[in-house]
Amino acid sequence: MILSEEVSIDAKNPTVSPSVEIFEVDVFNYQTSTIALLHQLGKKVICYFSVGTAENTRPDYGNFTAVDIGEALVDWPGENYVNISSPAVWDIMKARIKLASDKNCDGIEPDNTDIYSNDGGGLNITPGDVIIYFQKLAQEIHSYNMSIGLKNSQEILPNVSSLAQFAINEECSYQDSTCSAYADFTNPSQVVLSSGIVPKPVFHVEYVNYTDTSAGSDPAATEMTITNDFWPNVTEAVLLSNLCLTEPQSTGNPLETTLKLSTIIKTLELDGWMMDCNGLISVTATTDFIKAAS
């Protein structure tokens, strides 16, 4: 998941690290050529864009009309919720889906479907509205032979799980019951399996702050401090156990054993820095975005 910068790959000698199967990229800012190089290296590419907000930094921002703009997102300047029931907004999203297809994305992460949990975005958006919207998104995305994931929005997961090929969750570890909502998604019962439903992946992202305490400025240096706002005064080992759900439960098994989430640890910058649940840090080479990416 590298959204604030573009993965840097030498076209003459293409390599990329870490050795993972899937990269998530920003659909607007990544060049088609970079996505092609990731494919050449055998990687799947999930393309990110927001389906529930308008961001004033996006090239199609001018296509949103004032009547469809809702409340501002407090922590994200220049971003507002939009009326997902509006035909005009739907036209914008169809164009974004086509852009993802034109860039040969394998799947789409549609962000901000959880408008209903944020005062309806000031637009009285309900869970029922989002379910209908997700159904439309899935149909459109599938028509281009791309997959769709559900981002957060666990409340509607039972209603749309049959439409989603994967899910992405942010920070469910602080509330174990929230992570547990994915139990039937990742590990369906034998009865469910017999009906033809298969296990699906959940890409689980937790966020930390890191401070380099080494003499240099290498973000992959081993001398660094890792902290998390939910658990501010614990050791790194305890923090990793909490974030990755590896702490034994009353049943004797960690939640991770049951839920089978695919967990990575990032910073909110969403750059090339990543930590895995063993505490191993990797830094993917990146470059600044090229404007008007092809």
UniProtKB/TrEMBL annotation:
Q: Glycoside-hydrolase family GH114 TIM-barrel domain location, by residue?
A: 14-214
InterPro entries registered for this protein in UniProt = Aldolase_TIM (IPR013785), GH (IPR017853), GH114_TIM-barrel (IPR004352)
Any idea of its EC number? 3.2.1.22
Look up the domain of life of the source: Eukaryota
According to UniProt, the reaction catalysed is: Hydrolysis of terminal, non-reducing alpha-D-galactose residues in alpha-D-galactosides, including galactose oligosaccharides, galactomannans and galactolipids
**Coiled-coil region:** none
For the protein in the UniProt heading, the enzyme class is: hydrolase
Entry GO MF terms: alpha-galactosidase activity
What SUPFAM superfamilies does this protein's entry cite? Answer: (Trans)glycosidases
Name the record gives this protein: alpha-galactosidase
